Amino acid sequence: MRKLAATLMMVTALGFGSSVVTTTTANASTWHKGTPKVLRGVWKYSLSGKWKDDVGPMFKLTKTTMKTYGRGSIQGKASYKALGHHKYQVKTKAEGKLPPLNFKFQYVGKNKMRMVGTGYSQLYKR
To answer: Domain extents for the chain?
Structure first.
């Protein structure tokens, strides 16, 4: 009887121990085709902060493409991945021989979006 109890305790301990040691990690941030629904539309940036006077760089995000306006116009098929709550990284493969462009956006509110990067943050409005 003691041998049976000891064997059952060993099997239980080994089974429990192996389930505690084994951890599964999942990478939920996968790349999706297109753009996030919440970011679709035309986004404008004001250089002076007076939104009616001047408009600087702009982004136009459709279901499948992203187009940038400003010092040059670049358009291409887009893909994105979620970085956190209302934070997205959008990349586009520009047409031609240009390298792919990567942008990080944070959706702030109904008509506001922030482009974030290392050391800067620009507010865009619809």
So the answer is: 32-125
Q: What is the pTM of this model?
A: 0.69
The CA dihedral of 34, 38, 43, 45, to the nearest 10 degrees, is -120
- 44 touches 58 (CB < 8 A): yes
Secondary structure class of 10 (helix, strand, coil): helix
What DSSP character marks residue 49?
S
Residues 63/90, Cβ–Cβ less than 8 Å: no
pLDDT of residue 35: 94
Q: How confident is the model at residue 74 (pLDDT cuts 50, 70, 90)?
A: confident
CATH 2.40.128.280 assigned to 32-125: yes
How, if at all, do strands 121-125 and 32-33 pair? unpaired
